[in-house]
Predict the 3D structure of the following.
Amino acid sequence: MSKHVYKTVELTGSSPVGIEDAVTSAIAKAHETVRNMQWFEIVETRGHIQDGKVAHWQVTMKVGFTLE
């Protein structure tokens, strides 16, 4: 196994559909400008309630990427 140095960034994705969609959209957007992403860790999950129902999800995650 090679030696790697990782840097992390914190992202927050949101979605009216669900948690997985919030994560997927945040990672897809970050992929446009951040290279070499390798892993993510969910650090917080929140939701918005409207009329007694879950209306929106927000997921905050740390994303690790290797430095060049």
